[in-house]
Every structure is written in C-alpha cells, then in structure tokens.
Amino acid sequence: MTGNTNVDRTNFPVVALCASAGGLEAYQTFFDAMPSGSGMAFIVVQHQHYQQGSILNTIIQRGTPIPVLPIGSAMPIEPDHIYVLPSGFEAAIHEGRFELKQITHGSGWPATIDRFLESLARDQGERVAAIILSGAGSDGAAGTDVVKAMGGMVIAQDPETATQAMMPLSVIEAGLADAVLHPALMPGYLFEAFRIGAPLPPTDRPLT
After folding, report:
1. Which residue of 26, 150, 157, 169 pairs with 121 in a disulfide if CB–CB is 3.0 to 4.6 A?
2. 49-77 in b/e burial notation, b at 16+ Cβ within 10 A?
3. pLDDT along the chain (208 residues), means of 10
4. How far apart are CA 52 and CA 127, in angstroms?
5. Residue 200: its pLDDT value, please?
6. Strand pairing category for 153-157 and 128-132
7. Where are the domains of the chain?
8. Other CB atoms within 10 Å distance of the CB of residue 161
9. Domain 14-193 CATH class label
10. How far apart (Å, rounded) are the C-alpha atoms in residues 190 and 168?
C-alpha cells in the first residue's frame, strides 16, 4: 500500500485534466506515470459522445490503482480519487462539491471545459492545476485564464505529442502555460510544483 505523510488531507491539490479528440492516450500516459497516494484529486473533463462515459471510466481504471468514479451531483472532491465527467453533462464546483447539469440537445460542448475550469478556480483558488491535453478547438483557454487569475497553475501538453494540437496550442499562444510537457512528465512536475514528497513505494514486508 502506498502513502504520503507529507500531504495535508484537508488542503490538497485539485488537478483538472481536460481534452477532446485524442485525449485518451494522454490520460493513459499521465496516470501510468502518477503513483497512488499522491494526496491529489484528479478530475477528467472530456468532450464525449453520449455513450462514452462508462467506457472512459473503465479504460482509465485499467491503467491505475487510483479509484475512478463517475461524477455525481453533490459528490465531494476527495484526494487520491479520479473523477470522470459523465457523457451528456457539464459540471461545476461549489464549496468543494460537484454540481451536474445535463447538456440540452443541440447545445454541443463548445465551452464545457471553460465553464468547469472557471468554477473550479473560483472555488479552489491556488490549489488548482489545469492540464490542457489533446483536443480540437480552443475550449480551455478562457478557463485557464481564470485559473491563473485565481493563483492556480496551468500545464499544456507538448503539441508535438498531441493527436490534436489546437487545444494546448491555444493556451500556449495565449501565454497561459506555466509548463509545456509530455504527459509522462506532468506528474513529476506536479509533485515539485505543489511541494509534495514522493509517495512511499509499495512493499510486501516491513522496512528494516
């Protein structure tokens, strides 16, 4: 079992991972490099078709020991969990709890990420890290601007590693990215930026 005694369990970082087209590979790479017991909470917000939500939960869970949960209304954000936005919904945060709103037919997803990041930033402030991964369009740029204004940090996927580079590029070109990284390097950056000690490695016997 992993653990981290250096994390304040009542004042933990909240990491939002945002993508659209081509984001699955980036998520898998990120969580493959992220150890359990980090003390961070992770929220996955991706533009999805209506039947993709449970599939995304399952695929992410296959590659990580961190519990993966679909977001539910009034669900609190807790460290060492991954929360995935269900298909057909958008989310907001109020006093550390999720609020869900069903997307109406024909409204599309042009600013789902922007609205979520703005809500998260205003609620959680400097504890927020917004990660913009592969995706088409510019959703996320306005939201990361609010994250920065509220004292949080922004990480963009290196466009050369993204299946669709438009989303990370929009953040980079706006001068909002604190770092531009391959997804495999993002966990290490977060540990350093949030001054979190690395989790203890798993062990099958007492240390002597």
Report:
1. 150
2. eeebbeebbeebbeebebebebbeeebeb
3. 46 95 91 97 84 75 96 97 92 96 68 95 97 93 97 98 95 97 98 78 39
4. 29
5. 47
6. parallel
7. 14-193
8. 18
9. alpha beta
10. 18
| Nearest partner of 40 among 180, 192, 201, 202, judged by Cα | 192
Tokens of 47: 């533009």
- Both tokens of 21, joined, read 């087209």
Residue found under tokens 């996320």: 140
Question: And the tokens for 187?
Answer: 């966990």
* Sheet arrangement for strand 179-181: 68-70, 81-84, 41-46, 14-19, 128-132, 153-157, 179-181
Q: Which residue has the tokens 């493959």?
A: 32
Residue 207 is predicted with a pLDDT of: 38
Q: How far apart are CA 98 and CA 123, in angstroms?
A: 11
Which residues lie across from 155 on neighbouring strands?
131, 179
